[in-house]
């Protein structure tokens, strides 16, 4: 099935017209050369960011390469790599994918990741890559998990195996957008769990969690907590877009 999908993508890229997910100009590729170059030049790779949560550092935090919040209250995850800011060029594409259900945008977002980030992340040692899951109800309503649709298309070390169903999520009515950090942390507790079939497989392993957007980090922190409670040794976050800091209280 994966072979047929790749074959269809290749034929489509050669025959069918496309549009850039950023500038929306019609051309052959899902993201044009100009927009890729612009994104590359302004990506978070070019800025000093907290190694643990990926947020931009201020001058006083540069020496430790760690933000004040992570120093005061260390999260369960060990490191975070973010491609760009949420307010940047890819925000529209993420919205088209998630809220307008335009799956074609997943190809362009993955292409942006692969072009800018793949070489930098090649040396990262990990055993498995897991997308942040949706609840069954949310998955049924949307029809797909946007984090997995991007993650399955990104290039990573061949030794890293992608597991889309290892982490599960209970349905929860709480909406995180706009919430303060303490509220988000409290609301997300107990939402995630490791599928019984994968507990032994993940034990003592190094895991990458892929998410489309990181806001407060509450979701990724809770997933890391659950994974480490189940014996995982190291958790790294790969995040497409990172928002600014969320108020603590």
Number of strands: 9
On the 0 to 100 scale, the average pLDDT is 88
Oligomer: single chain
Number of discrete domains: 1
Structural class: alpha/beta
The biggest beta sheet reads: 5 strands, parallel
CA-atom Rg in angstroms: 18 Å
Characterize the overall form.
globular
Work out the helicity level.
25-40%
What is the overall number of helices? 11
- Beta-strand portion reads 15-25%
Description:
- The structure is a single chain.
- The protein has 249 residues and is an alpha/beta fold.
- It has one domain.
- Helix content is 37%, strand content 16%.
- It is built from 11 helices and 9 strands.
- The strands form 3 sheets. It has a 5-stranded parallel sheet with strand order 3-9-8-4-5. A two-stranded antiparallel sheet has the order 1-2. Strands 6-7 form a two-stranded antiparallel ribbon.
- α11 links the parallel β8 and β9.
- The radius of gyration is 18 Å and the shape is globular.
- About 3% of the residues have low confidence.
Give the topology, please.
Layout: H1 2-15, E1 18-19, E2 26-27, H2 33-42, H3 68-72, E3 79-85, H4 91-99, H5 104-116, H6 118-121, E4 128-131, H7 136-142, H8 146-151, E5 161-162, E6 167-169, H9 181-188, E7 192-194, H10 199-202, E8 206-214, H11 218-229, E9 234-242
Parallel strand pairs: 3-9, 4-5, 4-8, 8-9
Antiparallel strand pairs: 1-2, 6-7
Helix pairs in contact: 4-5
């Amino acid at each position: 099935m994966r072979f047929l999908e790749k074959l269809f993508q290749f034929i489509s890229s050669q025959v069918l017209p496309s549009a850039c997910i950023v500038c929306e100009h019609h051309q052959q590729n899902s993201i044009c050369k100009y927009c890729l170059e612009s994104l590359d030049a302004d990506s978070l790779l070019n800025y000093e960011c907290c190694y643990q949560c990926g947020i931009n550092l201020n001058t006083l935090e540069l020496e430790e390469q760690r933000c004040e919040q992570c120093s005061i209250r260390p999260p369960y995850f060990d490191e975070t790599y973010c491609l760009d800011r949420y307010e940047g060029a890819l925000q529209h594409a993420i919205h088209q994918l998630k809220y307008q259900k335009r799956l074609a945008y997943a190809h362009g977002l993955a292409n942006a990741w692969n072009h800018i980030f793949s070489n930098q992340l090649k040396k990262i040692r990990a055993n498995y890559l897991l997308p942040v899951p949706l609840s069954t109800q949310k998955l049924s309503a949307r029809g797909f998990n946007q984090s997995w649709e991007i993650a399955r298309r990104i290039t990573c070390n061949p030794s890293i195996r992608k597991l889309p169903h290892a982490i599960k999520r209970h349905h929860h009515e709480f909406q995180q957008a706009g919430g303060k950090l303490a509220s988000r942390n409290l609301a997300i507790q107990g939402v995630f769990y490791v599928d019984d079939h994968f507990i032994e497989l993940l034990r003592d392993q190094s895991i990458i969690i892929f998410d489309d957007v990181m806001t407060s980090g509450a979701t990724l922190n809770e997933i890391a907590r659950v994974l480490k409670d189940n014996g995982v040794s190291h958790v790294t976050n790969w995040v497409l877009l990172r928002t600014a800091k969320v108020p603590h209280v």
